[in-house]
Amino acid sequence: MELENKEVQARPERKKKIFSGVQPSGTITLGNYIGAIRNWVKLQDDYDCAFAMMDMHTITVRQTPAELRRRTLELMALYIACGIDPKKSILFIQSHNSAHAELAWILNCYTYMGELQRMTQFKDKSARHADNINAGLFTYPVLMAADILLYQADAVPVGKDQMQHIEICRDVAGRFNALYGNVFTIPEGLLVKSGAKIASLQEPTKKMSKSDSNPKGYISMMDDFGVIAKKIKSAVTDSEGVIEYRPDDDAKAGVNNLLSIMAVMTDSTPERVAADFAGQGYGALKSAVAEAVVEGIRPIRAEYDKIIKDKAYLKDIYTTGAERACGIANRTLKKVYKKVGFVTD
Ligand code: TYM
User: In angstroms, rounded to a whole number, what is the distance separating the alpha carbons of residues 192 and 228?
Assistant: First the structure.
């Protein structure tokens, strides 16, 4: 068949680019899965995607080296088990591509102290790690900007808590472009409709976090299925006893959260789930959510258990991934070096 428009045939439109990643700093939570990884899987067919294990970011907080190595590989196995296809997407370990550190240094010189001081994650983490408020913790968003800009990403699928970092990335990229011409694509943050902020099961006005000191607050993708069900069944709700989705009402935060989780796991909406459960008790909702989460995670875990054993396969993926990532990133870095005045040839 001949296409009418020869130009379209000869030059198909450039696929848009996506970059994202998770820190292998602890156990991976249902929040990470729903807010980020699950969303990435759906984007792989329509975008050129690169996903990384962000090990360099983790050392802004002290890590045990052997554990960090283990977790990095576990995270990669989990990405694949969740449906990230290494044939479609670039999958690599951040520290395997030195361009990230190199661009971060340059961008440090184009980022203001005042901008970094406003970051809520920096404020939270420095309060939690008052004995180790290091410079890396402060410039963390600059490394994150480098991650994204190296790949000329059009979109960055993340949870709500990372949007402030995407904003600073856009500001720095815009500032750099204003000085030197169109060097960087200005990326957009991409949020899922429901589930961009999965809440703690124990303190539902806070986000579910792997660094929560109370493990009942989060669901780990690695928890026993019985433990997952138990955590959901003991989730904090309210005393009103009415199943309604009221996203702007903090008093309803626990129920809103359960409805959001259920909606994501059953490809529905929180409003529709609320309608389905209208008139029923919280116990019925919790049982249904527990079942949906366990059944959603079960096949991922089965796949994960297979992949994690195959160290040669994992090594092959991250080696190929790093080669491809370095190729793309170095093109951007070279352009940046030229623009700022470094001798490049
Ligand atoms: P991290 O490792 O804290 O979280 C990984 C992803 O999971 C999302 N997320 C959530 N989404 C919904 N509800 C929650 N409770 C929840 N908790 C976490 C996060 O928003 C994130 O999308 N700085 C990043 C890692 C990073 C990065 C990057 C991401 C480094 N460089 C470049 C994108 C692009 C972080 O600490 O994510």
Answer: 23
CB 285 within 8 A of CB 258: yes
Average pLDDT of span 222-237:
98
State in words which class domain 16-191+311-340 has. Answer: alpha beta
Which string of DSSP letters, residue by residue, matches 283-302? HHHHHHHHHHHHHHHHHHHH
Query: How far, in Å, is the centroid of ligand 1 from the Cα of 23?
Result: 7
Is 207 one of the annotated active-site residues of the chain? yes
User: Residue 192: phi, psi to the nearest 5?
Assistant: -75, 150
Geometric angle at alpha carbon 264, from 275 and 318, rounded to 5°? 180
DSSP-assigned letter for residue 47: S
Domain definitions of the chain by residue range? 16-191+311-340, 215-307
Long-range contact pairs involving 122-129 (C-beta distance under 8 Å, separation at least 24): 125/60, 125/61, 128/211, 129/61
Q: State the fold for domain 215-307.
A: Tyrosyl-Transfer RNA Synthetase (1.10.240)
Q: Give residue-wise pLDDT tens across range 48-60.
A: 999 999 999 999 9
Residue 284 CA to ligand 1 centre (angstroms): 31
Cβ–ligand 1 distance for 144 under 6 Å, the answer yes
16 carries an active-site annotation = no
Q: What percent of the chain has pLDDT over 70?
A: 96
- Each residue of 85-127: pLDDT tens digit? 999 999 999 999 999 999 999 999 999 999 999 999 999 999 9
DSSP letter for each residue of 173-196? HHHHHHHHSS-SPPPEEE--SS-T
